[in-house]
Structure formats: C-alpha cells, structure tokens
## 1
Amino acid sequence: MNKFTNLLLDAHSVKQGAKNHKNRYWLAASVAVIGLTAFVSAQAQNNDNPPAPTVFQAAGPSVNSIQSAVDAFRAALGGNNNGVTAPGGPIIAGGRREINWDGGNVANVATSLSANPVLDQFLVGRGARFTTPGTGFVQATPEGLAAPDVFNNPSYATIFRAFTQSRLFSAIGSNVTDSLFFQPGTTDVKAVTRGFGVVFTDIDHPDGSDDPAPRLGNRHSSTLVEYFDKDDDVLFSSFAPSAPGDGNFTFVGIVFADARIARVRITLGATPGVDDSRKRDVVMMDDFIYGEPVAIH
C-alpha cells in the first residue's frame, strides 16, 4: 500500500456511554485508508463531563500525506505561532507554540544530547518541559540517531525521516516522554493548553510491538498519546494510526474548546536502540504543536 487518506475525526460524532461512577467515556473511531482499515481507540474522561475534543489524525508515505491535517490542527488552535518568549516576557493571549527540534535552522544537523531525564531547553521560551523515565533526550538527524554515541544502530539512518528538516527527537533509555506546560517567560508557573499535536515517523504496526523490557510503557499496543488535566485525570487518549514502510509519517492532535491539558504522555512502540522489527516498532518524533499555555489559577 502506497497511499493513505488524511482524516479529521470529530469526537463529538462518536457514540459515548457511561462506564463507571467517574463518568468515563470511551470513543472508537474507524479510520479508513486506501487498501486498509485501521482502528483508532480513544478514551475521554473528566468528572465535570467536558465537551469532547476535536481529533485530528493522518498517516501516509509523504509529508503531503499529513500536511493538510497538520494545517487544519493549526487553524483550529487559531492565531499565530508565538515563537520564543524572553524571560519575564509578556503574557500572550491565543495562538500556539511549535517545536521542530532544529533551532529555527533547517541546516542544523548537529546532534544535541542531554544526559538529564528533565529537558528544560524550551521551558522559558515556549512553556514546555519534557521528562522521561529514561536517562535523557536526543535531538538529531536520522544519521545522528544511528551514530555509535547515540543509539548505535546504522539502520536508523534510513528508516526515519524528518517532517520538518532536519532533526528528530527521542528519549534515551525509554519509550516514554511526558510534556508538561508552563506560562512562557517563567520557570515555575504551571499552565494548561487547549490542544496538542505531534508528528511521528515510522509507526509500522497498528497492533504495536512486544517490547520485552518496556520502561513504564505499553507492551502490547501501538504508539499511544494520553492527555491529562491539572489533577492528572485522563482527558483523552488515542493510539496513533500506522503508516507501514520506512520513514512514513503520522500525525495525532486534539483541540478542546478551552485550555485544560496540563500534561501529555507519549508512549512509543519500543525503546530506541533495538532493530525496528515486527516485534519492536521503533518510532521517532518530530514537530510538537500546542496551544498557547495559560497559567493555572
């Protein structure tokens, strides 16, 4: 299969039913792609019964396969890309933040390694902190990911591609990355956002992989994106659609009517370092796009 359709799922159209006294709602969306039917499972949960988010998903062999879904997600967030805020900078109403791991320069092909499981590189400027149960993070080109001092796997130079040139992003020593939000310009003002989306490369298996040594990650399921509120209750979760074939692209994003997402957990198919295979679906991340973080009061 070499073509995939883009899709926009309105979670309001999905049948909801009460599951327990905490008012959980399960959503199931059937994702049709040419020559293949994939199924995306999602969960929305909140004690206050908020309106369900609008869900954006796409998967396919080229940048163009997901570009329209990414553009629609940006439009749903509204406003402009607010770029980088200086320390103590002004509070911005509306718009979004984007991180493409390239430092604003497509010619940036240097490998950036962090040996700290907490990455605050984007904390002040863009209001995002990243954590992992692993040992650190890497921002690198596919060739950089393959290097002996990173994942030491030559195949990574060819099985991954960047959506936004030239670098990708990954945790080291784990397949789990958490994104937490803060008011840009500060280091300690916790915040929420109304939407978050992420681009993946090389999600091969809709039914996931069997990682024999997961680090707080899923073992028998595909790449998973979970959204939590300020009380750490699950607002929504969705498995990412697959795009079989080396270096293909997937996009997953949701937008609420108001800012309520305090944390996003991304659990990839396998911990990087091993060979990408039927049993272990190694996946990398590219662009993170999210609504302007709003301070929690």
Note: The CA atoms of residues 191 and 294 lie 5 Å apart.
## 2
Amino acid sequence: MTTPLRRLDGIAYWVIEDPSEIYDFINSQIRKEWTADAKNEGRNPQDDPWLQELSKRKWRLEILQLDEIKPNPYEFIPKTGYNFEEKLAKRSKELREAVETYASVIWPVIVRQEDMQLVDGYCRYTTLQGHERPFRQLASESEFDFKTA
C-alpha cells in the first residue's frame, strides 16, 4: 500500500489513492477500530448495521468542502461515562496545535456518500472546522454497492 503525502489548503495529508487499497484499509484497520468502539459503547459489533454493510461499500478519494460534511451527533454514553464531545474538544485542540506548530500530517476523514455523514475523523474534522480560514478536506468517501446488498 502506498500513502503519498498531499497538501491541500496548507494542510498535509497521508492519502491512499487506489480504491481497492482504500477498501482493504477500511475493512481491516478501520474496521478493528470501529469494532472496538462498538464494544466500548456497550454495543454488540455483530449487530451493528454499519459494520455489517462495510464490506459491500466502494471507496474513493475525493476533495470535499467541509460544509458539505454532516457530523453524526454523539452524546454522553451513560453506561460507560464516556463523554465524546468533551474528549473530542481536548483532542482537537491538541491536533490543531500539532498541525499549526509542527505541520503534522493527518489522514483524510471518512464520509458516507448517500448522506455525507462523517463516519471517521471527528477530531480532524473539528480541528479543520475551528481553523481561522476555511479548508477543503480530502475524504475517503464510500458508495454503497446496492447490487451486492
């Protein structure tokens, strides 16, 4: 897998350009993260509709405007006491400092095509959103393959 470095609006991104390599990355590395997230939130990953349909999606790299992306509203999870928004604010501040001070390289966000919902990259998204000038975002965007559903 190759991950070239791209700059867009002054931000450096690691990107995967080949759709089949994006597919492999999402269905191996990112799937592990999402499975762990479901378990930590007290959900059974086997029952998660998103994880069930993940392997049926096609992926591509595309440049999107930040205002096109719709975040999925997360809330406090009473079972675990984890407050997503509280942790996100802290992580976004740290990432913003790293990008502005050290020119840290970030990964694209992952967006679901049918509704432009952000499914991964909340910290990167809010970091870019809170920047002084508007940014476009390189995004791995999914397209559901209804033929295999």
Note: Residues 144-149 have pLDDT under 50 and may be disordered.
